[in-house]
Amino acid sequence: MTMLGALELFITNALDEKYDATPPHWADMMGVRKLDLREFVESFDAGGYPAERTRGAVTRAYDLKLQYYYLAEVDLGTYNQVYSAEINNRGLSNETATPRLLLIRLSQDQSLIGKMRVLWERLMNLIYYVETGKDIAARSKKKAFFRWLETETVAAKWRYFQPYEQVIAQYDDKFRTPEFHKSSTLRREILERSLDINDLIEPLNYFTNGIWSNIISITKGNGPISFHQIHRNSNGEIDPRYRK
Which of 24, 122, 171, 218 could potentially form a cystine with 64 if both were Cys, beta carbons 3.0 to 4.6 Å apart? Predict the structure, then answer.
């Protein structure tokens, strides 16, 4: 079996085990299944990229798929099992959660914050490698990646991703930087109880809705096919810069 086949089979077996009792047509719609590495290889070949770069591109695409599995199939499920389910069963809310339940939630929140940013760094590294055959060699991958998008001609086809710089920057400012490099941003929840889980998973929602289909389309040599509100100009139209 090829490396690609073995990697894909591993995650397929994990999903089959998890969704054994789920009707097949529902199980096939799970987001991780849509990150098809065989489809990626086909688009990579169609895009005319060097054959010697294929293995490196596949391993980085698999890293991205693994990270998405961790978040979408493990962490969010664990969050529901250890926190949300008990909250609901006991008729509680985020505001009235017991100290034990709140600390469970904060531990899960911290895990989400860290893994969310790893997901986007995996994405940036994949795109950069596809075009250059190298990993991003900079202390701040975020700054280096978006500077590359803005300034390098070879990166023009990927400028659909430029608006996500603001999404990631806001996430870093609000969650990642204070939680991992300063005083805990989660500590205030002990007194305030104001954090919305939707804010914590916003980057995952962006990723889930259209990112992979655009990677496939752009790698193949076509433009992006799915857009978010952040790609629209003040007139509500898709900014031409992001259609290339």
Answer: 122
